[in-house]
Specification:
9 helices, binds uridine-diphosphate-N-acetylglucosamine, binds calcium ion, 2 domains
C-alpha cells in the first residue's frame, strides 16, 4: 500500500508570542516540523506534502531541508483544517494510496501508532487517532458506538453530553486519497467557528455508509505545542525519553538529568557520559568513549577509547580517531585528530590535521584566521608541539618533529626537525633585588604623602 503524508503547518501559533513560525521552534535541536515528519518517514511515504501559510517561506525551507522531495503547498487564508488538507488536492493527483494527515506542531506521534492506524484501515474506510484525555478541555470529542466512530464534535459546537466524552481527537486521520478528497469536497463551514472542519468528514462518511473507527494511543504522544510553556515541557519530555533510550541501550550516565541531547545524538554501548554535558545536533560517540563533565559537543565524532574533557568544546567537523585525548579547556573545530594523539590543556585546534600519537602542548593555538580567510595547519605523526606554540596557518609540521615552547611557527617544519622561534634569554645579575627595593621605596613614599 502506498502512502502520502499531508502535514498541516499553516497556522499562526499566536500563543507562542514569537516572530518565528510555530513549527520551526525546536525540540532536541530540530524543528517541531522535523519531529512530525521523522516518525512518519519510517513508513516510507511516496509523497510528503506540507501545507504552509504563516511564515510559508521559512517553513517550506525547513521542510525541504528535511527531505528535498517534499511538496510544499500554500494555504493563503487559514479557513480550517479541512480547507488546509484540500490545498494538497493537486499534489495528490494520480495518487491512489492512503493519505495520513498529521499536524506540524504535534511532534511525538510514534511510528508504531501510525502503523496501528494503517492496520485498522484494512477493515475501515477512515481511521482517526484518538486518546483518552485526563483533561479533555477544548479537544474535539470522538462519538463512538462500539468500535464504530460516528462523528467528531468540536468543543465549540458540543452539547453538554458530548463534552462529557473523554475520548478526544488527536487530529491524525487516515483514509484512501480518493475517499478523503471526495469527503472534503462536501465539508461546509456552518459551525460555531465558521471554519471548514476536517473532523466533519467522519459524519459525512457515516452518512455515505462508509466505516470509520478510532485507534487510540497514549495522551503523551498526541501532545501539541501551542505556547512557550508547552514547548519547554515538551523539551523536558523529549530529553527524558532520549536519555532513557540511550541508557537502556547501554550508555552510562551518572546524572542523566544534567545531560542534554539532540534528536540525532548517537552514543554507543559502554560509552560514559559524565554530568553536565550538552550534545548539540550531529554528534556520534562510539562505544567505550568517555565524555567527561561540562563538555559541549556539536557536529563531532568521537571514536572508541577516546576521552574528551572535562570542560572541552568540540565544534562541527571535529573528528577524533581512536584513543585520542582531548583535555580541559580545549576547543577543536573542523579538525582531524588521528589515533592516539593528545591535546590535553588549554588549546585551540581549528582547520587542522594532527597525526597519530602527536602531543600538543598546553596553550597551543592554530592561528587559522587572518581576518578574512581560514587556513589549514597540518601536523604529522609522532610529533611534539611545545607548550604555547602559535601555528600560523597555512603551515605544515612534519612527522617526528618538535617545536620549542612558545615558538611562533610561520614556516613549514621538515620531518624530524625542531623549530625554535623565540628571543634568546638573558639574565641580569642582581637586577631583581635592585628593582624590588626601588619599587618598595616608591610605594612607601606614596603611602606617607
Ligand atoms: C483540531 C481539531 C480537534 C482536535 C485538535 C487536536 C479540527 C476542526 N479540530 O483543533 O478536533 O482535538 O486539533 O489538537 O480539525 N491548520 C492549518 N490551516 C488551517 C487550520 C489549522 O494548517 O486553516 C493547522 C494548524 O497549523 C495546526 C493544525 O492544523 O497544526 C490544527 O489546527 P488548530 O487550529 O490548532 O486546531 P484545533 O482547534 O486545535
Ligand atoms: Ca491546536
Amino acid at each position: 500500500m502506498s502512502i502520502a503524508l499531508v502535514i498541516l503547518a499553516a497556522g499562526k501559533g499566536t500563543r507562542m508570542e514569537s516572530d518565528i513560525p510555530k513549527v520551526l521552534h525546536k525540540i532536541g535541536g530540530a524543528p517541531l516540523l522535523h519531529h512530525a515528519m521523522l516518525s512518519a518517514s519510517a513508513l516510507e511515504p511516496d509523497r510528503t506534502i506540507v501545507v504552509t501559510g504563516h511564515g510559508a517561506e521559512l517553513v517550506e525551507a525547513a521542510a525541504l531541508d528535511f527531505d528535498a522531495d517534499v511538496i510544499a503547498v500554500r494555504q493563503d487564508e487559514q479557513l480550517g483544517t479541512a480547507h488546509a488538507v484540500l490545498q494538497a488536492q493537486d499534489a495528490l493527483d494520480e495518487f491512489n494510496g492512503d493519505v495520513i494527515v498529521l499536524y506540524g506542531d504535534t511532534p511525538f506521534i510514534s511510528t508504531e501508532t501510525l502503523e496501528a492506524m494503517l492496520a485498522a484501515r484494512a477493515s475501515h474506510d477512515v481511521v482517526v487517532l484518538g486518546f483518552d484525555a485526563a483533561d479533555p478541555g477544548r479537544y474535539g470529542r470522538l462519538i463512538m458506538d462500539g468500535t464504530a466512530l460516528l462523528r467528531i464534535v468540536e468543543y465549540k459546537d458540543a452539547k453538554d453530553e458530548d463534552r462529557a466524552v473523554k475520548l478526544c481527537n488527536s487530529g491524525v486521520i487516515c483514509a484512501a486519497s480518493s475517499t478523503l478528497l471526495s469527503l472534503l469536497a462536501e465539508v461546509g463551514n456552518d459551525n460555531a467557528a465558521g471554519e471548514y472542519y476536517l473532523t466533519d468528514i467522519i459524519g459525512l462518511a457515516n452518512a455515505r455508509g462508509l466505516k470509520a473507527t478510532a485507534v487510540t494511543c497514549d495522551e503523551a504522544e498526541t501532545l501539541g505545542i501551542n505556547s512557550r510553556l508547552e514547548l519547554a515541557s515538551a523539551e523536558a519530555t523529549f530529553q527524558t525519553n532520549k536519555r532513557r533510550a540511550l541508557i537502556e541501550d547501554g550508555v552510562m550516565m551518572q546524572a542523566p538529568d544534567t545531560v542534554f541531547l539532540s534528536f540525532d545524538t548517537i552514543i554507543g554501548r559502554d560509552a560514559e557520559i559524565e554530568p553536565n554535558v550538552i550534545f548539540a545536533p550531529g554528534v556520534t560517540i562510539e562505544s567505550g568513549a568517555r565524555i567527561r563533565a561540562f563538555c559541549h559537543l556539536e557536529g563531532a565524532h568521537v571514536s572508541r577509547g577516546s576521552t574528551v574533557g572535562p570542560f572541552a568544546r568540540l565544534r562541527p567537523g571535529a573528528e577524533l580517531a581512536e584513543h585520542v585525548h582531548i583535555g580541559n579547556f580545549v576547543e577543536i573545530k573542523n579538525a582531524q585528530i588521528d589515533e592516539g594523539a593528545k591535546v590535553n590543556h588549554l588549546s585551540y585546534v581549528g582547520d587542522a590535521e594532527i597525526g597519530a600519537r602527536s602531543n600538543i602542548g598546553a596553550g597551543t593555538i592554530t592561528c587559522n584566521y587572518d581576518g578574512v580567510m581560514k587556513h589549514r595547519t597540518i601536523i604529522g605523526r609522532d610529533s611534539f608541539i611545545g607548550s604555547n606554540t602559535m601555528l600560523v596557518a597555512p603551515v605544515t609540521v612534519g612527522h617526528e618533529s618538535m617545536t620549542a615552547t612558545a615558538t611562533v611557527v610561520t614556516k613549514n617544519v621538515p620531518d624530524g626537525a625542531m623549530a625554535i622561534a623565540r628571543t634568546e634569554q638573558t639574565n641580569k645579575d642582581g637586577f631583581a633585588r635592585k628593582l624590588f627595593s626601588m619599587l618598595r621605596a616608591k610605594k612607601a613614599k606614596q603611602v606617607k604623602g
